[in-house]
């Protein structure tokens, strides 16, 4: 039998729900080999006695049947469910570094990330704004695009984790043009859409109301769309965000580009929370993630829903097949 492709699953913040969600991957039969990155003792403790957890053996073409493979990365300090500890911040980043190295070397076909806690990483003295920005920096990728998929929607963001007051200045012609190029290219290359239609939101209420509620649509967004339309891209907008997400308009597009985080993601999460997937576009590797946080209040209770993690694995597999 030929060797199965391997996907790395980072278990994320050890005080959160990530380790126990990863253990639940055994509830499905997967057409690929999944390897969880994390402290093997932690995964065993959070996974329950009914789940068989074994060390990852790279020499095997296929993992042992009925077992969860774990690539052991040791905790820096004992982890307690629901209790954050800055001492384990570098452990969380080590999981990302190891998964990324494996993707870059070809050991892994892609990586799927369980949630991390930005605050505790920053408390440990490491400037960290999120997976998206971290992976961009460590792959030397000048610009990446965050897109969430779920509930029949694909919503990408022109800006990500910024204070709202900083958003307008961050939306320049250059950034918006490159963002649309990345979004278009990956919709073609990784989602098998030959001629994707992209709905582009305006920044201001009513898409600026002809300049009466802001001029970004006139001075930045529309000129960029006109340039890219001349190259053959199918771009619709700028559209008022409050009416963009109605069924009649959504039917006209394959993806949405929102101008900032809370313009587009509340709609998608309303449609798909617990089953949505975060995708980083523009990277030289495949990376997907859950659409939720560490859920410290649920950690260790066994009540956390693995639906988003399962969906993230499924999408990573699909993207790898398209790319192949």
Which labels suit this protein?
single chain, 324 residues, alpha/beta, Isopropylmalate Dehydrogenase, 2 domains, 12 helices, 12 strands, globular
Helix content: 25-40%
CATH class of the largest domain: Alpha Beta
- What's the name of the CATH homologous superfamily of the largest domain? Isopropylmalate Dehydrogenase
CATH topology of the largest domain: Isopropylmalate Dehydrogenase
Structural class: alpha/beta
Compute the separation of the termini in Å: 19 Å
CATH architecture of the largest domain: 3-Layer(aba) Sandwich
Strand residue content: 15-25%
Total strands: the figure is 12
Over the alpha carbons, how many angstroms does the gyration radius reach? 20 Å
> How are helices and strands ordered from N to C?
EHEHEEHEHHEEHHEHEHHEHEEH
Main-sheet strand order equals 3-4-2-1-5-12-11-6-7-10-8-9
Report on this structure.
With 324 residues, the chain is an alpha/beta fold. The protein folds into two domains: 1-141 and 285-324, Isopropylmalate Dehydrogenase; 143-282, Isopropylmalate Dehydrogenase. It has twelve helices and twelve strands. Strands 3-4-2-1-5-12-11-6-7-10-8-9 form a twelve-stranded mixed β-sheet, sandwiched between helices. Helix 7 crosses helix 8. The mean pLDDT is 94.
């Amino acid at each position: 039998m030929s060797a199965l492709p391997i996907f790395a699953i980072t278990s994320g913040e050890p005080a959160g729900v990530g380790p126990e969600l990863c253990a639940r991957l055994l509830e499905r039969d997967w057409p690929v080999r999944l390897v969880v990155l994390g402290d093997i003792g932690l995964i065993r403790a959070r996974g329950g006695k009914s789940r068989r957890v074994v060390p990852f053996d790279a020499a095997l073409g296929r993992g042992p049947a009925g077992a969860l493979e774990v690539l052991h990365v040791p905790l820096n300090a004992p982890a307690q469910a629901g209790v954050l500890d800055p001492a384990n911040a570098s452990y969380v980043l080590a999981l990302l570094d190891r998964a990324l190295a494996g993707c870059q070397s070809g050991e892994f076909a892609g990586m799927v990330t369980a949630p991390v806690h930005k605050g505790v990483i920053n408390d440990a003295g490491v400037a960290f704004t999120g997976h998206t920005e971290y992976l961009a920096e460590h792959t030397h990728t000048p610009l990446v695009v965050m897109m969430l998929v779920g509930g029949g929607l694909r919503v990408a963001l022109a800006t990500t984790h910024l204070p709202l007051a900083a958003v307008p200045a961050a939306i320049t012609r250059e950034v918006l043009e490159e963002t649309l190029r990345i979004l278009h290219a990956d919709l073609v290359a990784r989602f098998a859409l030959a001629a994707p239609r992209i709905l582009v939101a305006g920044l201001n209420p009513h898409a600026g109301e002809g300049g009466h509620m802001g001029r970004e649509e006139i001075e930045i967004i529309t000129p960029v769309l006109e340039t890219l339309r001349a190259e053959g891209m199918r771009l619709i907008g700028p559209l008022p965000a409050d009416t963009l997400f109605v069924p009649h308009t959504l039917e006209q597009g394959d993806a949405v580009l929102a101008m900032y985080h809370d313009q587009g993601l509340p709609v998608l999460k309303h449609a798909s929370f617990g089953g949505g997937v975060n995708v980083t576009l523009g990277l030289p590797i495949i990376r997907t993630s859950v659409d939720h946080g560490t859920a410290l209040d649920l950690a260790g209770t066994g009540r956390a829903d693995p639906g988003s993690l399962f969906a993230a694995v499924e999408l990573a597999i699909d993207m790898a097949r398209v790319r192949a």
